[in-house]
Amino acid sequence: MENVISRRDRKKVQILNTLVDISMELFVAKGFEETTIADIMKSADLGTGTFYNYFQSKEDVLKYVLTQKFDQAKNSLERLIKSTISPQEKISQILVILGRIYEDNRQLFGLINHLGPNQPPHGPEFKDILVSIIDEGQKNGDFRKTIPIEIVIETFMGLIKSAATSHSKIPFMENLNYKLDLFLNGLTEKNNK
């Protein structure tokens, strides 16, 4: 049976998308702090009260957009975790997926500091995915068992941040791939003694 969306619901989705698109354009163009809800609604050609039917604050708009991006990444990662490729290849592909998402959304991720001291809205699911892959790799001998999973995760998460803040002239994805190579060489067991 076909899922038919009512005209009213289509209008709600259209307004939501308009609010998000205009908000993000203004956050990037004017700056997050300088953009007001009145600015957003004026650009959207809607009454200010309409904003509050969808969001409670500018921060909520930002959280909504970040959640959408993390959900897209999560779906890709869940497909990846079910694949039969090696844990090492899974780790490589995760970093490439996350790196591309970051590279395509640099301006968005530059706004995260406006959410305050809380973590971005991706929840514990991402960490759980990494833990399961690292655990799988340690159990089947692909990864060293002598390194605590927490350290592996911290180091892995630092790779994107390190590539993103690098002052090197090496392009972001190439920089990230070099760091991934170093990371995996340290994570995998070497029996060259």
Automatic annotation (TrEMBL):
Does the record carry DNA-binding as a key word?
A: yes
Q: Where is the HTH tetR-type domain?
A: 13-73
Question: Keyword annotations for this protein?
Answer: DNA-binding
> Where's DNA bound on this chain?
36-55
Pfam families to which the protein is assigned, alphabetical: TetR_N
InterPro entries reported in the protein's UniProt record: DNA-bd_HTH_TetR-type_CS, Homeodomain-like_sf, HTH-type_Tx_Regulator, HTH_TetR, Tet_transcr_reg_TetR-rel_C_sf
The record's annotation in PROSITE patterns points to: HTH_TETR_1, HTH_TETR_2
* PANTHER family given in the database record: ACREF/ENVCD OPERON REPRESSOR-RELATED (PTHR43479), ACREF_ENVCD OPERON REPRESSOR-RELATED (PTHR43479:SF11)
Q: What is this protein called?
A: TetR/AcrR family transcriptional regulator
